Amino acid sequence: MKIGSIQLEIKDQESKQERIQKVKNMLIEMKGYDLIILPEIWATGYFAFDRYVEEAEEIDGPFVQEFSQMAKSLKVHLFAGSFVEKAGEDYFNTSIFINPEGEVIGSYRKIHLFRYGSQEGKLLTRGSEITVVETPFGKVGLSTCYDLRFPELYRKQVDLGAEILLVTSAWPHQRLEHWKLFNVARALENQCFLVSSNCVGKTQGVLMGGHSQVVDPWGTVIAQAGEKETILTAEIDLQEISVIREDFPQLKHRVL
Ligand SMILES: O=C(O)CCC(=O)C(=O)O
After folding, report:
1. Which residue's CA lies nearest to atom 1 of ligand 1?
2. Could you tell me the pTM of the whole model?
3. Which residues form the CN hydrolase domain (predicted)?
4. Which atom of ligand 1 is nearest to the CA of 175?
5. For the chain, domain boundaries
6. How many CA atoms lie within 13 A of 19 on its CB side?
7. 178 C-alpha to ligand 1 centroid (Å)
8. Ligand 1 in reach of 149 Cβ (< 6 A)
9. Among the options 9, 40, 55, 57, which is catalytic?
10. What is the pLDDT along the chain (256 residues), one digit of tens a residue?
11. Across the chain, where does the E strand assignment appear?
12. Catalytic entry in 85, 120, 145, 199
């Protein structure tokens, strides 16, 4: 299975439309991938809080429609990262998972809103539903950035059958060591593959951490990006999950 994680630089001078066009141009060049993942609130820019309300869209709005079309034309499973979703009076940090037929088969509203140096908790409403999506290559758990610090979310995803954990992110460089550690920890403790997509560069005065990762169920980082905009590519063998879970049946030894 060929996986691509698009690590994006969010340049303040770019508009939402320009970022969308850039990502579409990148996607068009990505041939033969089974699954592609994008970062958190990348079209608006996670730290552009003053644009959240103005650029919010409904779940069936142009952003989702555009990337449904992209997934269909590329015949790829696309975790398109998150956008600011408007639903009635509420706003959510919502990520979407699209199948190669262009259908949105999963969406996830970020449960743990970030409040440290971030206005997210003030502007948005938190989600309450855990999302695990059924795909031809197994069940996939969706999560967003700060969620990485809350292991119970991922354990609940595993209880729902998740074997691949996807993390869309805008994680700052200041806490890069935490990022690297949590990527590995969530994969290892749950004996899952984990694929993350982060931002890079300076946006709204905040330096982003990059280092998007693909981690295997043994906790080995099999691919890791640096601190530049890039497409991180990895081939994974999903059989490793059952082999490792049978050989070292830690999940069966849970007491609590
Ligand atoms: O937990 C962290 O240090 C970063 C979290 C974050 O940036 C986010 O949730 O957007």
Report:
1. 146
2. 0.98
3. 1-238
4. 3
5. 2-253
6. 26
7. 10
8. yes
9. 40
10. 999 999 999 999 999 999 999 999 999 999 899 999 999 999 999 999 999 999 999 999 999 999 999 999 999 999 999 999 999 999 999 999 999 999 999 999 999 999 999 999 999 999 999 999 999 999 999 999 999 999 999 999 999 999 999 999 999 999 999 999 999 999 999 999 999 999 999 999 999 999 999 999 999 999 999 999 999 999 999 999 999 999 999 999 999 9
11. 2-9, 35-37, 77-87, 90-98, 104-109, 132-135, 138-144, 164-168, 193-197, 199-200, 202-203, 206-207, 213-215, 221-224, 230-235
12. 145
Cα 88 to averaged position of ligand 1 atoms, centre (Å): 26
Classified by CATH at the fold level, domain 2-253 comes out as Nitrilase/N-carbamoyl-D-aminoacid amidohydrolase (3.60.110)
145 lines ligand 1 (CB under 6 A): yes
Tell me, what's the ipTM?
Answer: 0.97
Cβ count within 10 A of residue 18: 12
Which of 55, 86, 110, 120 is catalytic? The answer is 110
Distance (Å, rounded) from C-alpha 47 to C-alpha 199? Answer: 11
